[in-house]
Amino acid sequence: MVKVVRASQADLEAAVDALRDGELVAFPTETVYGLGANASNPVAVRKVFELKDRPASHPVIVHIDQQKYLKRWVTELTPEAEKLADAFWPGPLTLVLPRAESVLDVVTGGQDSVAIRIPSHPMARQLLDAFGGGIAAPSANRFGRLSATRAEHVQDEFGDAVKVILDGGECQVGLESTIVSCLDGSVRLLRPGSITLGQLRATVGEVLIGADSTSPRVPGSSAAHYSPGTPLTIVPGGELDALAESLSEGGQRIAVLAQRLPLKTYQYVTWVNAGKRAEAFGHDLYANLRTLDKAGCARILVQEVPGDERWDAIRDRLARAAAGAAADSGRYAALGTGVLP
Ligand code: TXA
Ligand code: MG
After folding, report:
1. Into how many domains does the chain fold?
2. CATH number of 331's domain
3. What is the domain extent for residue 117?
4. What ligand has the least distance to the C-alpha of 141?
5. Of 133, 150, 175, which marks where a domain is finished?
6. SS3 category, 27
7. How many CB atoms lie within 10 A of CB 279?
8. Across residues 307-325, what is the average pLDDT?
9. pTM exceeds 0.90 for this model
10. In a mutational test of the pocket of ligand 1, which residue from 57, 64, 76, 94 has the highest number of ligand atoms less than 8 Å from its CB?
């Protein structure tokens, strides 16, 4: 059964008042929770960067609730962009488009383009409708860390620093939106998400992968992103049990995120079976990593995921989580980092 989550009138008013006062509001989307500010108030948008510890060079997505408002934000919708917008909005797609002159530099990072999304989560739509303007919102997590897919994750990240947190339950997709740029006549996939490359190509034909060398800023351009604090290593399924067992025999507490059950029970191993379905695995990914991160383990081992495109976004986030966790911690360098040979 689909749970329809709606905010009460009082909560909605509190959120809209906060946005109008230049305060921050965390809100659910179908991908992950956003940390929102009035996209037309530079002081408010700067607060987002400060609270997240986010470098100014990482621009933010502007959320709107209807395509008719696009002209406030962008100068041009190419035929490809229009097809993508019609096919996937409202939904987990972000389009990078030529910016309108009035869009704030703090939003775009001073670039000629702006990232726009029309989310489908009912509570995000209620908020956008009641507010009436654009909401600039990155994912509601500290820079480089795991995104938040539940209201309590946002609370864990920021405590009381966010004026209002709208609780819309668990995010349906659980992974950040697919980002596609439609600039200079080409269509480029900048960040994989639940809308797959195949779906994009079926809609517009040719889609290039990654930013071109002239794109100044690329989503998640840092190889290290989406990271837990515990070192994370990706391990082929065939080696997972043996590695978990040998590390735990050495006396280390080990966490495992797998697509199956363990072959037997190991002492000191916390094993999460997230299943073989990409959708469910993605939905639970950040919540699982947050739980395992808190389990006091020396290392998180993640079973390598399948190569087909339904797993592209998950593979991308896990590779960055492994790189980020490695960069954070020299302590476990002896074990190696990233994908084990
Ligand atoms: O699902 C999502 O996209 C969530 C929800 C809250 O909408 N938002 C999200 O925002 O993931 P954030 O800030 O964590 O990731 C957005 C990415 C960043 O890596 C940023 O650099 C990139 O989008 N970005 C924003 N504007 C851009 C632009 N004009 N050109 C290229 N990349 C851009
Ligand atoms: Mg983010």
Report:
1. 2
2. 3.40.50
3. 9-175
4. 2
5. 175
6. strand
7. 15
8. 93
9. yes
10. 94
Q: Write out pLDDT tens, residues 17-75.
A: 999 999 999 999 999 999 999 999 999 999 999 999 999 989 999 999 999 999 999 99
Residue 254's SS3 state is strand
Identify the residue whose C-alpha is closest to ligand 1 atom 23: 219
Residue nearest to atom 20 of ligand 1 (CA): 219
C-alpha of residue 138 to centroid of ligand 2, in Å: 6
Residues with C-beta less than 6 Å from any ligand 1 atom: 29, 31-32, 34, 58-61, 94, 96, 108, 111, 113-115, 117, 137-139, 176-177, 179, 190, 217, 219-220
Q: Could you tell me the CA-to-CA distances from 258 to 114, 161, 236, 244, 279 in Å, in that order?
A: 37, 35, 10, 11, 14
Q: Are residues 300 and 151 in the same domain?
A: no
Q: What percent of the chain is modeled with pLDDT above 90?
A: 85
* Residue 84 belongs to domain with CATH number: 3.90.870.10
Residues 27, 125 contacting (CB under 8 angstroms):
no
Which atom of ligand 1 lies at the shortest distance from residue 115's CA? 26
Spacing, Cα 225 to ligand 2 middle (Å): 8
Residue pLDDT, tens place only, 183-227: 989 999 999 999 999 999 999 999 999 987 665 555 555 667 788
**Closest residue CA from atom 18 of ligand 1:** 219
- Do 260 and 325 fall within a single domain? yes
User: Hey, whose CA ends up nearest to atom 29 of ligand 1?
Assistant: 114
If you measure from the C-alpha of residue 287 to the centroid of ligand 2, how many angstroms do you get, rounded to a whole number? 15
Output the average pLDDT for the chain. Answer: 92
Q: In the numeric block, which tokens belong to residue 230?
A: 């515990």
Which atom of ligand 1 has the smallest separation from the CA of 176? 1
CB within 8 Å of 16: residues ≥ 6 apart: 127, 130, 131
Average pLDDT, stretch 96-116?
Answer: 97
- DSSP 3-state percent helix, strand, coil across the chain (nearest 5): 35, 20, 45
Q: Are residues 169 and 22 in the same domain?
A: yes
Three-class secondary structure of residue 95 per DSSP:
strand
